[in-house]
Amino acid sequence: MNEKTPNLIDSLINFIPALVAFLMPIFFLPLTSEFFEFNKLAFLTVAASLLVILWVLRMVKEKKVFITKSVLDMGFLVLLVSFVLSSVFSLHKVSSIFGSYGRWFPSLFGFVILAAFYYAVASNLRSGLRFVLFALVGGSVISTFVALLSYFGIKLGGSVYLQVPNFTLTGSSTTTAIVAVVGLLVTICLLVTSKNLPVKILLLTGAVLNFLGVILLGTPVVWVVLVLGILSGLYFLPFNELKANKFTLLALVGAMSVFVLLFIVPATRDVLINKNYPRELVLPAKESQVIAFSVLRDYPLLGTGPSTFYINYPNYKTLVMNSTPQWNIRFDKPYSEVFNLISSLGILGILAMVVFTLRALKLVFFAKRSMDSAAVLPAIGTGLVTMSLYFLFSYANVLTMFLLILFLAMGVAVAALVSEKRVAEDVYLGITSFKTDSSMSILNDLGGRKEVFPYIVSVPILGLVGFGLFLMARMYLGEFFIRKSIVAATQNNGSLTYQMQAKAIGINPGRDTYHNAYAQTNLALANSLAGKQDLTDQEKVTIQTLIAQAIRNSRAATEVLNPASVANWETRALVYRTLVGVATDADQWAINAYNTAIQLDPANPRLRLDLGGLYYAKADYLSAASFFRQAASLKPDYANAHYNFGYSLMQLKAYPDAQREFEIVQRLVPMDSADYKRVSEDLSKAKEMAAQAGAQAQPTVEQIESSAVPAGGQNEQQREVQESLVRPGEGNNVQPLPVNPGNTNTPGAQ
User: What is the C-alpha separation between 222 and 225, in angstroms, rounded?
Assistant: First the structure.
């Protein structure tokens, strides 16, 4: 290796962390079904792999194996063991290992990538630490700037995804706000420790922009984290530095105060605040707590596995959610990462996190008492505290967890650089470190004094890197073809949609969501072809083949790949429901699928509404009425449930009871809507039939309870959220697989 190689390796090792810090907040690609988090994970995988390869090359060149040992090593080890065991015994191993669809962290794969990035940075980054922080600030400023343009309705282009009202480069307005918080706090620390006036002016501008982003995009949780982060910054920054920069800080405080006043004064507030800006839907803390501890009760030791909250939520959610506007959303993230940890990793994960936290505190205390030559420890300590506090109030994703890992790695790197051995130290290993009489003869055979240990170590490391890149490439290609199928579907190109989904399944057959989408596409193509006149024998065979393929894929998703997913069973029910009238036993297969779905999501009134519609289509009005009544009991303000219940009662000739249900529906739908007119006609018919049948009987206590609605009905705002009334047996209410590739601002809708 020539003399320039070490310099090149060292330069790349110091440059890549800065590049990653800059790009992670803003990197996205519209090439996959989910633009943001998945592509950030892919980018981080490539970057971490490249850093590890450079690390190996450096060890080979220096003929010695080295790593930075720190107080965090035991914490990482016990967390890794917890992730591995919970993934092995997970309710869905694919989700736990690679992340649930659309939500790629926490997962075993994501944890390993972050750990690899941590060790590569902590063991190699010795110069350019301050440059990494500047790069992070730059990325946060660009992220905030783009989000503010979107907030004020300024579009960056004509692409469909750029027209989303809350488009951000992070995929989430909340994540963008916390990145702005981190950027603001790091900027303040750099501002205090910088001596160059032009640099101070640039930092001051970036701080003001990030603060504006926090005000406009932030939630109360983000504001609380900002305040606590500022207090932690004051704790870490030396008092003499604060005093020396008092005029700069006063200028920053003055600018921030002006913005606060602008948003307090009604005249300017109404101009600046976008009241129509979509906010992220978050599962309430109390509901998250109930679900987390219910899971811990049933799966105490290892939980249900990483990234399985989307399975836990429908199984354990309470009836309280049915009284909220989010009743029909399946949340796949809890309120905070604490509840996610409890439910996904169990007691072992909780203990592992306690160990990790206690060891990380040593790094935090080091950041306070030590003075480093690069003057980066105040920013690192502030970032560590801020991100840790954030996870107490919000859930983790690839970007937010990357920020925490970056601060940890940089803190350990500084500790090793200043020889703080109680926190971190560089450890060098080689063949000579393990010499014995027998090993000396082996060493002589290998070439005397020549070190071969780095070559021995490099082989498995590079093998693991290659395997990780292979797994990511397979995941990426699957997502790439799914994205192409989505685009084809929007263009009504059923043939291309079919082909792209088939390719995605061929590359990554373990994703149950791919099979669900493929089953629905097969059904859609079969229905389209069946609508033709004078079908040929070949077309009839094609229809049968498409239907058979839909059945096979839905069964694979439910019986093999992910039996615990209620969405899979809904898709299976849809497949069989479509075959009613074609196959003699299709209705019974659909009923069985709905029953399984109800077991997995017992508090869901829509499933019972769908199942009741199936019984109604079979003319089994008593069973239909029973399920419609259950749906109305689960959600007393569910207009469609009462409407369908009333129709079933009409068929059962229970006209007074049907009249009562239609009267309830009248109170639930807007008076000036087509639904109101429709139910009024049905009510008139029910009254007429009741009059013909004789005097109306008094309702029983049980009937009154089952028909209960909130006192006074609903207000007009609540009425507006009701779906259009659908008579029982008309179509189906099964929701298709969500394929919206835009922002992930709604953590639900599996």
Answer: 5
